[in-house]
Amino acid sequence: MTRRGDTIAYAVSGIAILAFVVLLAFALARLIETENEMRRNEGDNMLWAISQAQTAVLMLDTALARHASGLGEPGDIERRYNVLLSRLTLLSEGPQARYMDALGHAQPLADHRRKVEGLEDGILAPARNEAEEAGAIHAVLAGLASDLGRAANQSMVTHWERTGARLDRQRAAIIQVIISILAIIALGAFLCLTLLRAMAQKQRIQRSLTQEQEVREAYRSFVALVSHQFRTPLAVIDSSMQRLLRQGGVLSGDDLQERARRVRDEVQGLTRLVDTTLDTVRLDGGSIQTNPRACDVRTLAERVIASQTEATPGRRITLSIGEEVPPRLWTDPLLAEQVLANLLSNAVKYSPDNETVFLRVRAESNRILFAVEDRGVGIPEEEQGRLFSRFFRATSAKGTRGAGIGLSVCLQLAQTLGGHLAFESRSGLGSTFTLALPVSE
């Protein structure tokens, strides 16, 4: 199922990338086409050429009229005539000739050009008294000017129509490019989301694999550790019971009490181990429910100390409560007592019998802090980062019974209560574990 999902994801991503490339190429082609079309100004050039030719006709006709009235300048008519011929030649060759032909004015323009060239002698050497020849020249020039005017008007109309069509095409191209860009953005967002999902899924799989490996290794260690922890007290209990069976009639009362005490201690150790293991299972399954209520701070602390004193009668445990501590807090007293009892038990277990264990209570930022302090073996600095890991035991704890799950359970219970568990420790000098609980809900 995973391989099929990966195949589908790769196929969809490939199609999206292909569509991305196609849309980008299409948008680029449309932009290039629009840019090239914007460069085309053929209509503007032709309108200018026709208008210049028409102006040349009118200027030549005016020069002839001035010469007839005796006001003309020497050489002016020849210059105007040559300009007119150059304008007509421009309109009769190359793309200009094709454009004039498209307008339907190529043939009339050629006829007018032949007529103008045929009147060259009369134009360049006009006689003042030959009114008939002057009238003929004027008629030819007037007809040429009229045709050029119509050609200019038609060129303008055609240019406007082409400009309108070009603008419509450019507008359509711009809309297409905008749509393509939006599609590219959408595809890019889709690809990003796909990649992010793939990366997140890969990370989840990697985390799951790592977690599975850690859990497998942890439970392997747990099984070995619990097997050892169960085997040792059971061996002590079995040995004591065997001796009682063999020598029960001759043992003194003190020996019987010592045997009974040892059996009871081992049974209590097994009970704590089983309870802690069950707590771990319940925490993993999310089946631990809290029942918060108003609790007396001093009563909670004294009850935990009394329980530990009963288990280890010879140990000194000192309680101190700051004046700033409010008398009550809102929490689940059973779970809070379980955390403090575990911390106090560890402090007693990992410190010398002649050292006092302290339980200090103080208030800070709407929280009540229960600090359990000992002068015991401490925790090596390089191992402190793994202290709350399940089934982990510090090297300084060797020789002392334990399963390595008590502190992990304490941390989870503290978080369940809305609090936090922290510690400070120096190897060989002791440790301080602090349970911080909120004063109110």
Automatic annotation (TrEMBL):
Q: Does the keyword Phosphoprotein apply?
A: yes
Tell me one Pfam family matched here.
HisKA
What PROSITE patterns does the database record attribute to this sequence?
A: HIS_KIN (PS50109)
Q: Which SMART domains match?
A: HATPase_c, HisKA
Catalysed reaction(s) here are: ATP + protein L-histidine = ADP + protein N-phospho-L-histidine
Bilayer-crossing residues are 12-32, 172-196
State any single GO MF term. Answer: kinase activity
Domain called Histidine kinase: residue spans: 225-441
Q: What is its EC number?
A: 2.7.13.3
CDD domains cross-referenced by the UniProt entry:
HisKA
Record keywords, A-Z: Kinase, Membrane, Phosphoprotein, Transferase, Transmembrane, Transmembrane helix, Two-component regulatory system
Specify the superkingdom.
Bacteria
Family matches, as PANTHER family: HISTIDINE KINASE 1, TWO-COMPONENT HISTIDINE KINASE
Listed name of the protein: histidine kinase
Say which species the protein is native to. Answer: Fodinicurvata halophila
Taxonomy of the source species: Bacteria, Pseudomonadati, Pseudomonadota, Alphaproteobacteria, Rhodospirillales
